[in-house]
């Protein structure tokens, strides 16, 4: 591309369809983040894709407050703090983050580079791919109701994308956490009726939200039912009735044409399983020299990979990212010679780190 | 030494040798039965959900509030639902019967 002159329109159009980088990293957990650092020292640019709307993966989603005791040089650090430190460490390399999307497809082009397309339709072109997906993508946990799929994204939702979806509707919200209560209070003024269904009379949410919710129940603007989802009925994707098994065991049918479920998140391997990589019970087999998968140019690092002796530790993932970055350099810069240097003494690395 | 009896999602029961002091989730995982246990026993993911046989329920330590909070996130639970990472095995639990919840 260097030397080529393109118009602003053309440039924007290109930027909109395909983004190029040296390494496309799937997963912005601690290992994906540290891979940016290791790649950055070698002068390689990264784009990261993550299903969540922020970096950190399990560290920020599952245990942001929980102390971790086995990160070298940190006698104790929380999942969130580790994430924040890694973000600070990779800042000089200005990686691009594509949040709230999964890589839906991965294919090799005739030029030998990989093309990745995300669930938001963004394409990434890269000579090397790092799969740092941990245990998989965080996706909404779904209830086990037989005909659920018929209603999903038509009248049964796991998130609010457009409030108008619920305007003048009979809505049922499932859940007892912050998301359930926040959205209950948010859409309450615009719905025809609203019922909140939760397992028990105990909510894990901000005290102010719980108070506001209870006030709405008192004022009869909101109905609160203790129980769990039992069944869905309706036709053509449109809900008509939601049956709920209440905590005393009786079945109650609620008239409803919209539902929102906040059952927390589940982890799924997702589209990765379909890319023809050698899998060993949901884990991707790699070698221990380059951490490359059965497809040359695609690497797997961190909890998602498997090799004899593998330990699912963050520190193992850090090590794997350093070696994979060396291998990726040879693919992305076939004509350049790689010199091994230390960050303590190399002025070239100091420049890259912005500390020169 | 002792055993736990775990019924898998196909209805087959497995007799698993148990280890004193191990979490029941760890015993199940170590024997290679399908249990996700994504968070590794931190009581943060609810992917080690099991149904304990009613006659054993009373013999277990009651669920703590953080376990109840995680059970709240599951769309389908029963009166005997527990997170197996929160049950520590000891001799008193020799013969414990449970069923793996849907994957």
Characteristic terms for this protein:
heterodimer; A: 356 residues; alpha/beta; FAD/NAD(P)-binding domain; seven-stranded mixed sheet; five-stranded parallel sheet; 9 helices; 23 strands; 25% helix; B: 103 residues; alpha+beta; Ubiquitin-like (UB roll); five-stranded mixed sheet; 3 helices; 5 strands
Spans where pLDDT lies below 50 across 5 or more residues of chain B: none
SS-based class of chain B: alpha+beta
CATH class of chain B: Alpha Beta
* Cα end-to-end separation of chain A: 29 Å
Supply the CATH class of the largest domain in chain A: Alpha Beta
Rg over CA atoms of chain B: 12 Å
Q: What radius of gyration of chain A results from the CA coordinates? A: 24 Å
Mean residue pLDDT of chain A: 93
Main sheet makeup of chain A: 7 strands, mixed
Q: Would you report the number of β strands of chain A?
A: 23
Write the layout of secondary structure elements.
The complex is a heterodimer of chains A (356) and B (103).
Chain A: H1 8-17, E1 18-20, E2 23-26, H2 30-41, E3 46-49, H3 58-61, E4 67-68, E5 77-78, H4 79-90, E6 96-98, E7 103-108, E8 114-118, E9 123-126, E10 128-131, E11 137-140, H5 148-151, E12 156-157, E13 170-174, H6 178-187, E14 193-198, H7 207-218, E15 223-235, E16 238-246, E17 251-255, E18 258-261, E19 265-268, E20 279-280, E21 283-285, E22 298-300, E23 305-306, H8 314-332, H9 347-353
Parallel strand pairs in A: 1-9, 2-3, 2-10, 3-6, 10-22, 12-18, 13-14, 13-18, 14-15, 21-23
Antiparallel strand pairs in A: 4-5, 7-8, 8-9, 11-19, 15-16, 16-17, 20-21
Helix pairs in contact in A: 2-4, 2-8, 6-7
Chain B: E1 2-7, E2 13-18, H1 24-30, E3 49-52, H2 54-57, H3 65-71, E4 81-83, E5 96-100
Parallel strand pairs in B: 1-5
Antiparallel strand pairs in B: 1-2, 3-4, 3-5
């Amino acid at each position: 591309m260097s030397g080529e002159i393109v118009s602003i329109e053309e440039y924007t159009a290109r930027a909109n369809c395909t983004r190029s980088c040296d390494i496309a990293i799937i997963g912005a957990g601690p290992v994906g983040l540290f891979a940016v650092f290791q790649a950055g020292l070698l002068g390689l640019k990264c784009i990261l894709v993550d299903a969540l709307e922020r970096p950190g993966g399990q560290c920020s989603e599952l245990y942001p407050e929980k102390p971790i005791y086995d990160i070298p040089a940190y006698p104790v650090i929380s999942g969130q703090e580790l994430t924040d430190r890694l973000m600070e460490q990779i800042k000089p390399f200005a990686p691009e983050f594509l949040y709230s999307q999964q890589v839906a497809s991965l294919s090799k082009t005739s030029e030998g580079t990989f093309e990745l397309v995300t669930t938001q339709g963004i394409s990434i072109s890269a000579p090397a791919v790092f799969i740092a997906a941990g245990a998989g993508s965080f996706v909404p946990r779904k209830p086990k109701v037989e005909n659920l799929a018929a209603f999903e994204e038509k009248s049964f939702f796991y998130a609010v994308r457009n409030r108008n979806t619920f305007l003048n509707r009979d809505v049922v919200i499932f859940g007892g956490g912050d998301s359930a209560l926040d959205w209950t209070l948010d859409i309450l003024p615009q719905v025809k009726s609203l019922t909140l269904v939760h397992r028990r009379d105990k909510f894990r949410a901000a005290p102010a939200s719980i108070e506001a919710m209870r006030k709405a129940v008192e004022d009869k603007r909101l109905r609160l039912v203790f129980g769990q989802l039992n069944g869905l009925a309706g036709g053509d994707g449109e809900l008509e009735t939601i049956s709920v098994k209440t905590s005393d065991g009786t079945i109650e049918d609620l008239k409803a044409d919209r539902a929102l479920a906040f059952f927390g998140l589940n982890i799924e391997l997702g589209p990765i399983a379909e890319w023809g990589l050698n899998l060993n019970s949901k884990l991707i087999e790699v070698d221990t020299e380059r951490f490359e998968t059965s497809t040359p140019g695609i690497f797997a690092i961190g909890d998602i990979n498997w090799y004899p002796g593998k330990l699912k530790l963050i520190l193992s993932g850090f090590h794997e990212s350093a070696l994979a970055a060396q291998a990726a350099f040879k693919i992305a810069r076939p004509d350049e010679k790689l010199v091994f240097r230390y960050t303590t003494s190399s002025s070239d690395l100091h420049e890259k780190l912005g500390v020169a | 030494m002792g055993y736990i009896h775990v019924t898998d999602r196909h209805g087959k029961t497995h007799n698993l040798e148990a280890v004193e002091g191990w979490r029941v989730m760890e015993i199940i995982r170590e024997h290679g039965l399908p249990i996700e246990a994504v968070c590794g026993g931190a009581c943060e993911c609810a992917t080690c959900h099991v149904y304990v046989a009613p006659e054993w329920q009373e013999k277990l330590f009651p669920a703590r509030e953080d376990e109840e909070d995680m059970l709240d996130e599951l769309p389908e639970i029963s009166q005997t639902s527990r997170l197996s990472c929160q049950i520590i095995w000891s001799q008193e639990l020799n013969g414990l019967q449970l069923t793996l919840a849907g994957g």
